[in-house]
Amino acid sequence: MRVLVTGGLGTVGRVLVRELRQRGHDVWLCDLFHHHDPQYQKCDVGKFQQLTRLFDEHGFDYVYHLAAEFGRWNGEDYYDTLWVSNCVGTKNLLRLQEKHRFRMVFFSSSEVYGDWSGLMAEDVMDHHEIKQLSDYAMTKWVGEMQILNSAAMYGTETVRVRLFNTYGPGEYYSPYRSAICVFIYKALHDLPYTVHMGHSRTSTYVTDTVYTLANILENFKPGAVYNIGGGEEHDMKYASDLILDYLGKSDKGLVTYCDPEPFTTRVKKVDITRAMQDLGHDPKVTLDEGVPRTIEWMKQAYARNVDFIRTGTAMFHA
User: C-alpha dihedral over 242, 246, 252, 257, to 10 degrees?
Assistant: First the structure.
């Protein structure tokens, strides 16, 4: 298949491109930056003309639509970019899908479950009124509604996936990244950070997530929606303690423990039965295994960055 991955330079996108190519697919990618890959094109999904040029030059059978602004606080601080990228960008792709008839995999988020406190099964929103708790969550739910409307009006074929806290190598630090990424970076550099008590998650190692995502091409069911999450629930203190223990550091002077974070889902209990049945989803990497792997990758990644600053030697981060 000829496949386009939007957001192909992101944490999940890079690994997905590699996995799809290993399976023999003709994979193209686009993102916001200049890049050397011969099958890469710089393209902002929020700009319809840029997307139109890409689709006019290359025909695609499938599009994995990962390109989006990520995170609730990023969505508060940069809400204008968030809404354009996540909602206008998705609408742009739908307009092109209506014309070119490619199949799409749309990346939603566990955040769409908002204030739901029960088991997060894919049909919860079909039976209950849910309040999304941030602009980021709202944009992801808007994207899902846009897709359902396009399918009903124009017969487009899309699968929606809701990722649950994917983490692992390839995620570079910023204050807006995942909690595990932030904890590792700050613990490595002896910088203080905050752990909000009373939250639990089912974190998913990136290769487990990507293996399942790649399987969608082999069993594509138009209109399907899947939770893609981990197999074990943990609180955020457990994740922080794992990191500190591996690094041989104490939380004293580093970690501040606080009450639950407002406007954030407290407990995410995910039902992954549907993804297991249809897509062979089988999260193998436990948090106890994945955290050390991620720490070792980050040590090397930031050592290379220091090397670059000191020597001026350019390094490519695969």
Answer: -20
